[in-house]
Design brief:
By secondary structure, the protein is of the alpha+beta class. Helix content is 23%, strand content 43%. It contains 1 helix and 5 strands, in the order E-E-E-E-H-E. The chain has a 5-stranded antiparallel sheet with strand order 4-3-2-1-5, covered by helices on one side. The chain is elongated and about 45 Å long.
Length: 75
């Protein structure tokens, strides 16, 4: 299940988004997909591969906690 976070700055800047998703790949591994950028604009993405679901979920939780500390909120 993807986790979507949204950051709305107080000034006139457009809101930013951050999305994290776990996905099982074809080679018995788990991928952590991350996407981020300005809402309505071209975003960036990255994929990290892990051997187990536990490792992938720990990494995804770490990214999610870091973004929550930076001011992002659950969308």
């Amino acid at each position: 299940m993807p986790s979507c976070l949204l950051y709305r700055p107080l000034n006139a800047r457009p809101p930013r988004f951050y999305r994290i998703e776990l996905a099982v790949n074809l080679f018995d591994g788990v991928s952590v997909l991350r996407e981020w950028g300005v809402a309505g604009g071209k975003g960036r993405s990255t994929v990290h591969l892990f051997d187990s679901l536990r490792e992938a979920s720990v990494a995804a939780d770490g990214h999610r906690k870091r973004m929550l500390k930076r001011g992002y909120n659950r969308a």
